[in-house]
Design goal:
- The complex is a heterodimer of chains A (529) and B (1071).
- Chain A has helices at 2-30, 47-59, 71-78, 90-94, 105-125, 133-158, 180-197, 217-239, 255-271, 281-286, 314-318, 338-343, 350-353, 418-433, 440-448, 462-477, 483-489, 493-501, 519-522, and strands spanning 38-39, 161-162, 177-178, 204-205, 208-209, 298-302, 336-337, 359-361, 365-369, 376-380, 386-390, 392-393, 413-417.
- With 529 residues, chain A is an alpha+beta fold.
- In chain A, strands 8-9-10-11 form a four-stranded antiparallel β-sheet, with no helix packed on it.
- In chain A, a hairpin with a 6-residue loop joins strand 9 (365-369) and strand 10.
- Chain A starts with a helix and ends in a 7-residue tail after the last helix.
- Chain B contains 15 helices and 54 strands.
- With 1071 residues, chain B is mainly beta.
- In chain B, the strands form twelve sheets. Chain B has a 22-stranded antiparallel beta barrel.
- In chain B, helix 9 (420-426) packs antiparallel against helix 10.
- The chains are: A alpha+beta (529), B mainly beta (1071).
Chain lengths: 529, 1071
């Protein structure tokens, strides 16, 4: 019996020893080390970290499908009068969009991820000591520019939205929506900070270079001009009784003063070096070449590249499928519809004629633009036999024959370009003085570079002028993401959509000036109904 | 020190020593081996001792005293002391040997001594259901266990025990195979994102299983505290040494024939053409009768001429004459599948040393062409008793290899990548298969310009190869330290690797987007498991103690890799080489380590096997939780009273067994990915003017409070044995409350973080389970026994979150619709959407509704919430939106029932299993397309026949249109009008929800056994699985779940693998 006890005591000793060993190694077993990620406490230490953090804010512009990579672009296109985008966008076309619409959640989410990233940079990079001061101000300026851009897109698409400007803390609730005047305050002060602290195009300071593709001083001024003009014209139409822009009544200050601010900012853009209008139609056509990104007409672009994972989908969205003009077998969803071409623009305009595809071939068929420029005559390539018509027209602004797949286009997305600044200044000048002739210089700068006849506002009413400026804008900037916002701020959204789509399905009402906040937000945010 | 201790302990014995020191030896009569640990008591006294390892004992006593020798499993003997030497040989107590031993995890226990709720399924039961998966063997066997169906070869099968009590935890129970907890196995990441769950136990050969125990209540599951919340299934595989040293060779051969139970009736070619024509006719009628029509609506006063109605100018019928094509895509895509399985096993040796080797080969074909799975399993184990039988060495090795092709079975949520099954139903019957060289461009016209692949092409050409290896080596050393104390040290190493390679050829829907798309991926899990335990057993004077202390250590090292490429010049090399691709995406790798350290102490005590107390405490610490919240304690207590042993029932002939059981305990769950409590940054990439740069963004919010999900469970049970235990009844009722639920809490997207893993909310499950079995006849010639079980579970989400009363579940389907709702006070994962009330008959009714979009032939959605204007007045045009939604279904079944009949007649045997379910609604995603009559895709024949049709008579030849109230149907119809420009029909509504109640003849098995000499036998059998189904569910199978293990998307059928019926012919030869 003795030996059993001895045995068992030995065994217990062994087990105890093992247990002690176990608990010593326990700490190791239970400690977590995420190999593929970095803990936040080890980050935001120096300028490398600061640059990496702001890079992520840029990257978010096309991370996922919801924002500039795809969905947002199609949404603002479908919301315009140019065309209907994909079948998924039927609710935009019919003006029946609701909070459960499938096209909204990703756009909403991804813009706010960008805002979160920008907020982190603004708050945390500010605390970094081991960094060049000018570089630090630039990085914060870039982050503020991007935050303002995100909010500007949100406020124009959704109206009143939650306004978060600080890093989110664990356990924090969702914020209620803010009135648009508060949102615009942040947008304006962010863009002003960016204009003050961002650097020039490709400018070098203290051994650091403002890489091409980053925010520049000029792009910040241009965005400021765009913001002021948005406020000015929206306030103007609101005061004239447009219900869709009613919320702009809450923004204080005289409408004219915003036109003036817009004009001033345009002047500042045009003082900056590194940007220049092209001087001929041939060159103008080339500014849309896939390999000609960041050319002197472009103020700020979301960067596409043929580098793996850096491509955009814009070629696929806008170019016909299977024609060697984009990658992959998909695409061509965003195209001009005949109603728009016939009723809402001057289709003889050289800029329109030179930014659409005149002829293309896919695997079996040949498409040739019809004499009305409202569609293509389709023939079977092999036999030449007629194969009916295709009643849409494709833009040629986003062709990329080298794109191999849907997401490998190196086409940049033009957020804002120089011609827009001239157009904005022309509009602002005429509005400030209620005199269309003051727009002559700027409009003709744009027209003459392409060898077009001069514009002359003499004898025009402001009403007529606004129709013209709207048309000038779309001839120059069609398919570049401005049309929906131009139609709404000018208060003519319903009218233009109806003339493009026809009476029955083109109806837009005041509530269609913005989209509903998606259900994924309202159902998770107790501070929004 | 030790000597003093021993002296003190032995002191009482020496004090009472008077006249005689009796020495002796106890041996087992059968084996003639010494029996250690036999209790030797002097009758009517408290004195006693036990035999040592050599079976020897020594006791001080008097002449004439009676010595009582008792030992578990042996007949108790009494001997009157007459000399100083008493040698005894003990006989096995047959009545006790018959006792069923139940494995409770770390230890075994006699079934009679159970105080927790544990159900056992024996080999006898298992071997009759000749199914290809282990999970299916459990179908209908145990009350409270719901096993879903999956006919996908190698696919995972969902099991839930006592309802769903977790949001992230899944319903999957913990599988413990031969003492080693098995980690869930997931497919490597596929093209549509994450992989589906695989069967965790697919590495096991069903023929190798000796028994399975299902641990249901907390008293039982608490021994697996940390992971016991979903129940535990303990699987014991066979080992040698059973047949008293004989060599035994067993061969089984099975042939399976599998077929789709029933094709769904979709429109055939001519019907589809009629449908397409009807769309235009209906559209014309709706347009011209529109009260807002410029020029006034058609009311019969003006003739239907192009002059009066210019709409007629553009009106035409797309199919005035038939195309003559009529393809049934289901027939083309599904097939009769042949499968076979061979198993050969050897077992031999005796109790001291034995060996088992088993080889299984299985080749399963799926009913979808080009799908299948092949499996090889090899299992070997051996046992050796050494060092005077004091030490037992045991080694077990399982090796399994699976390889299969899943084709394009799963539905991918993005874009147009529909699954084979969805496409087989929706693809237009008037299209031909592609000729060589033909592009499926020809399909584009009827698919809104989208080029979709036909289901045959998807099934035939899409490659989705899954391969997995599983290796488990398990070693244990058991030491009998003293007769009462046993120590075990166990170690196991488990290596799992599953890889998945896919290729979407250039001409398929998905491949077209990217000129061919390939992925290569794998998941690798290396796990080390260590366990040490000490078990103490003693019985004296009717007191029985069974105590155990266990320490375990587990560490998982998981590595995953996902590679993707697209832009292939041609399809020749598929996924094998990425060199032929123009675009190779950045590889995504994950490295994860997960640790779990646990300690367990359990004391089981009973007095005269009448009163039972069972106490249990387990401490678990998991690496996944926040720094100061890693560990938790999971205690349990169980009480039982064997009433039938009391005097007043002891002699009852009617009630042979009556036992009341009560238990309470806590169990936990940690089903989350690691690193969720940490604030983390994730790398991302961007380029400036074609120069690549790397950035970092904050991707995970810290959660310092992250801790265990915990379930409290109460159980009350009653075991009744009637008429000499010929009829046995077990009733259990339970109440489970799960709190601190681990959830992916959706954050307001405006916070910039989509979600955070956090502990929130409470779920309640309560239910009743009844199991009954009875031997109705049991004669030598004829036997008939019946067993059945019935379970009800009520599930309720008590509390969701700190600040929300409801939260939408994840989306299903392409439309990113969210039909699933988590709402306080409601069952988990109910369906939430619009109510409908038939179809609008005409414009009068539509306009009178005041609802936006109402039109003849459109769905009548019910406006449950009146939209008001700024002044609080109802808007004239009401919208159907989220505010109008209500509960439209509940995926939780009301009850489940199963009945098995076993017959034996001479050498014939037969078993029949029926299973059934009441309730359990199904959200059939495909029904949107199949009953919506809104697109130019195919739909249900019944949905078209019972649809709104305009009263217009159209001459197919001339195209002349006449108003004719005698044609068309606008009243009392069930489905919306086929239209070319329909209104809003994509809302989540009760039209997508179907009753999932069913009764199935689940399994029928008939066998004939030929017996030869020397115990050799040959059994021939035939089995049918899912032979008959009675259900109103219009989809393939009410038991199919598309998201089989996702508790947040239960009851969803989205292109789910069609239900199948399987016939098996087989033989089992024992040599």
């Amino acid at each position: 019996m003795k030996s059993y006890f001895l045995n068992s005591i030995r065994f217990i000793q062994v087990v105890t020893f093992l247990c002690v060993m176990l608990f010593v190694s326990c700490e190791d077993v239970l400690e977590e080390e995420p190999f593929t990620q970095i803990g936040t406490e080890f980050f935001y230490q120096n300028e490398t970290d600061a640059l990496a953090a702001v890079t992520a804010v840029y990257a978010q512009l096309k991370n996922g499908n919801g924002y500039y990579r795809q969905q947002y672009i199609s949404n603002i296109f479908a919301a315009s009068d140019q065309g209907a985008s994909s079948w998924k966008h039927g609710n935009f076309r019919k003006g029946t969009i609701t909070s459960t619409d499938q096209n909204l959640p990703n756009t909403w989410k991804e813009i706010y991820v960008g805002i979160k990233d920008a907020n982190n940079v603004i708050a945390r990079v500010d605390e970094i000591i081991d960094i060049d001061e000018e570089l630090k101000a630039r990085i914060i300026g870039e982050a503020k520019f991007l935050r303002a851009l995100n909010y500007f897109n949100l406020v124009r698409c959704f109206g009143e939205v939650p306004l978060r400007t600080e890093p989110v803390k664990p356990g924090e609730e969702g914020l209620p929506v803010s009135p648009i005047e508060d949102i615009y305050d942040v947008i304006i002060s962010d863009f002003i900070y960016a204009a003050d602290n961002c650097w020039g195009f490709n400018e070098a300071r203290d051994g650091y270079v403002n890489d091409i593709g980053r925010v520049t001083k000029a792009s910040a001024h241009a965005m400021l001009a765009k913001v002021y003009l948005q406020i000015a014209s929206s306030k103007r139409t609101a005061s004239e009784g447009n219900l869709g822009n009613e919320r702009y009544n809450g923004i204080s200050g005289a409408t004219e003063s915003y036109y003036q601010l817009a004009k001033d900012q345009c002047d500042l853009v045009l003082n900056e070096s590194g940007y220049q209008l092209v001087s001929s139609l041939e060159e103008w056509k080339k500014i849309f070449d896939p390999t000609n990104g960041n050319n002197p007409e472009m103020l700020f672009e979301v960067q596409g590249s043929s580098i793996v994972g850096q491509g955009t989908a814009v070629s696929n969205l806008f170019s016909p499928r299977g024609a060697g003009l984009s990658g992959g077998g998909w695409g061509g969803t965003n195209k001009f519809q005949a109603g728009f071409i016939n009723n809402n623009i001057d289709k003889t305009d050289s800029r329109f004629q030179n930014s659409i595809i005149q002829e293309f071939q896919d695997v079996t068929k040949t498409y040739v633009l019809n004499p009305n420029s409202t569609g293509y005559i389709r023939t079977i390539t092999e036999t030449g036999a007629s194969n009916g018509n295709l009643n849409v027209v494709y833009t040629s602004k986003y062709i990329d024959g080298n794109a191999t797949t849907e997401y490998t286009s190196q086409q940049n997305w033009h957020v804002i370009r120089l011609a827009d600044v001239y157009l904005m200044r022309a509009e602002a000048l005429a509005e400030i003085n209620q005199n269309p002739t003051l727009a002559n210089t700027d409009l003709n700068t744009l027209r003459s570079r392409l060898g077009m006849d001069d514009f002359d506002g003499t004898g025009m009413s402001m009403e007529e002028f606004r129709t013209v400026i709207l048309q000038e804008r779309v001839q120059e900037l069609s398919m570049e993401g401005h049309r929906f916002f131009d139609l709404t701020r000018m208060g003519v959204y319903d009218e233009y959509c109806r003339s493009s789509y026809g009476n029955t399905i083109g109806t837009r009402q005041p509530e269609d000036y913005t989209w509903p906040i998606p259900l994924i937000e309202t159902s998770a945010n107790e501070n929004i109904d | 020190m030790r000597k003093i201790f021993l002296f003190v302990l032995l002191l009482p014995l020496s004090l009472v020593a008077q006249e005689l020191t009796v020495k002796g030896k106890v041996i087992d009569e059968e084996s003639k081996q010494p029996l250690p640990g036999v209790v030797v008591l002097i009758k009517n006294s408290a004195k006693g001792t036990t035999t040592n390892f050599d079976g020897e004992f020594e006791i001080e006593t008097k002449k004439g005293d009676k010595l009582v020798f008792s030992f578990i499993g042996m007949k108790t003997q009494e001997v009157t002391v007459s000399s100083n030497k008493v040698d005894i040989s003990m006989q096995a107590d047959v009545s006790q040997l018959d006792e069923v031993v139940v494995s409770a995890g770390y230890f075994d226990i006699s079934k009679k001594d159970l105080s927790g709720s544990i159900a056992q399924v024996s080999e006898e039961q298992l071997s009759k259901n000749r199914t290809t998966s282990i999970e299916q063997m459990l179908q209908g066997q145990v009350a409270g266990v719901v096993v879903n169906e999956s006919s996908e070869p190698g696919g995972g099968i969902a099991i839930s025990i006592r309802g769903t009590n977790s949001m992230l935890g899944g319903t999957q129970p913990l599988y413990v195979v031969d003492g080693i907890p098995i980690d869930p196995l997931t497919d490597a990441q596929g093209n549509g994102g994450a992989g589906q769950s695989q069967s965790s136990i697919s590495f096991l050969n069903p023929n190798d299983i000796e028994k399975m125990e299902v641990l249901k209540d907390a008293a039982a599951t608490a021994v697996y505290g940390a992971r016991g919340a979903n129940g535990v299934i303990i699987i014991t595989t066979k080992s040698g040494g059973k047949d008293g040293g004989k060599d035994a060779l067993t061969l089984t051969v099975d042939y399976f024939l599998t077929d789709v139970v029933e094709n769904i009736d979709v429109m055939d070619g001519p019907q589809f053409e009629g449908y397409m024509n009807q769309r235009n006719i209906n559209q014309l009628y709706v347009d011209i009768t529109d009260p807002l029509r410029p020029g006034g609506p058609f009311d019969g006063s003006l003739p239907l001429t192009p002059e009066n109605y210019p709409e007629l100018n553009t009106f035409n019928l797309p199919y005035p004459t038939t195309t003559g094509i009529n393809n049934n895509w289901q027939d083309l895509t599904y097939r009769l599948a042949y499968s076979n399985a061979y198993n050969l096993s050897y077992q031999g040796g005796d109790k001291k040393q034995n060996l088992l080797m088993s080889l299984g080969i299985q080749d399963t074909e799926g009913v979808i062409i080009n799908t299948g799975n092949k499996r090889v399993t090899f299992n070997t184990n051996g046992r050796k008793k050494a060092f005077n039988d004091k030490i037992e060495l045991f080694s077990r090795t399982n090796i399994a290899y699976n390889k299969g092709n899943a084709s394009s079975v799963g539905n991918s949520q993005i874009f147009q990548q529909r699954s084979v099954v969805s496409q087989a139903l929706q693809f237009q019957p008037i299209f031909e298969l592609l000729e060589p060289g033909q592009d499926d461009d020809i399909y584009a016209d009827l698919n809104e310009g989208n080029v979709l692949s036909n289901p045959y092409t998807l099934a035939k050409d899409v490659v989705d190869e899954k391969e997995s290896y599983n290796f488990i080596q398990n070693v244990s050393v058991t030491a009998k330290l003293t007769p009462k104390l046993t120590g075990i040290v166990k170690g196991a190493f488990n290596f799992q690797k599953s890889s998945r390679d896919t290729y979407y050829p250039i001409h398929t829907t998905r491949g077209r987007r990217n000129n061919g798309e390939a992925t290569q991926s794998f998941v690798e899990n290396k796990k080390i498991y260590g366990e040490a335990n000490l078990r103490y057993r003693n019985n004296f004077n009717g007191h029985r103690i069974d105590a155990i202390v266990v320490g375990t250590y587990e560490k998982n090292n998981i590595r995953t890799m996902f590679n993707k490429a697209y832009g292939f010049g041609n399809d020749a090399t598929t996924y094998y080489t990425f060199e032929s691709a123009t675009d190779i995406l950045v590889p995504i790798a994950q490295f994860r380590e997960i640790g779990l350290v646990s300690g367990l102490a359990r004391v089981g005590y009973n007095y005269k096997r009448k009163y039972y107390v069972d106490l249990n405490t387990r401490i678990d610490a998991s690496s996944k939780f926040a720094k100061n919240n890693k560990s938790a304690i999971f205690p349990s207590v169980a009480l039982a009273w064997a009433i039938s042993k009391e005097n007043f029932l002891k002699d009852s002939n009617t009630i042979s067994n009556l036992k009341l059981r009560l238990s309470y305990g806590k169990t936990g769950s940690n089903p989350i990915a690691p690193y969720q409590s940490l604030a983390l940054l994730t790398p991302t990439r961007y380029n400036f003017n074609n120069q690549l740069v790397t950035g970092y963004y904050e991707s995970n919010l810290a959660n310092d409070d992250l801790t265990w999900e915990t379930t409290d469970q109460f159980n009350a049970g009653l075991d009744v044995g009637l008429i000499d235990s010929k009829i046995n009844l077990t009733i259990d009722t339970y109440y489970k409350l799960t709190y601190d639920l681990l959830q992916n809490v959706t954050l307001p997207a405006s916070n910039g973080f989509a979600s955070i893993v956090d502990n929130f909310g409470e779920i309640e499950n309560k239910g009743v389970e009844v199991g009954i079995n009875g031997a109705i006849y049991n004669t030598k010639k004829f036997g008939w026994d019946v067993s059945g079980n019935f379970s009800v579970n009520k599930n309720k989400l008590v509390k969701l979150n700190s600040n929300l009363e409801f939260q939408l579940g994840p989306s299903v389907g392409f439309g990113q619709a969210n039909p699933i709702m988590f709402m306080e006070g409601k069952p988990l994962g109910i369906f939430w959407g619009a109510q409908t009330d038939g179809i609008y008959e005409d414009w009068d009714e539509a306009i009178a509704s005041g609802i936006d979009g109402a039109a003849p032939g459109e769905i009548k959605y019910i406006n449950n919430h009146v939209d008001l204007d700024d002044n609080g007045q109802p808007l004239t045009q009401q919208e159907i939106n989220f505010d109008d939604y209500v509960q439209i279904g509940n995926p939780n079944p009301d009850f489940n029932v199963a009945i098995t009949n076993n017959f034996r007649f001479g050498n014939w045997d037969m078993s029949v299993l029926f299973t059934g379910q009441k309730g359990g609604d199904i959200f059939w995603v495909d029904s949107w397309a199949l009953t919506g009559n809104q697109k130019s895709t195919n739909g249900l024949e019944s949905a078209f026949n019972d649809s709104w049709k305009a009263p217009l008579n159209v001459n197919n030849t001339t195209g002349e249109v006449l108003y004719d109230p005698s044609v068309g149907r606008t009243t009392n119809i069930g489905n919306p009008a086929p239209l070319t420009d329909p209104g809003s029909r994509a809302l989540v509504s009760d039209r997508q929800v179907f009753d999932g109640s069913f009764i199935k003849l689940k399994n029928l098995n008939i066998g004939y056994t030929l017996r030869f000499e020397k115990n050799r036998s040959l059994r021939l059998y035939a089995t049918g699985q899912n032979l008959l189904t009675w259900t109103d569910y219009p989809g393939y199978d009410p038991e199919v779940q598309s998201y089989n293990k996702d508790p947040q998307r239960r009851g969803v059928d989205f292109g789910g693998y069609p239900g199948t019926r399987t016939y098996t012919l087989g033989l089992k030869f024992n040599y």
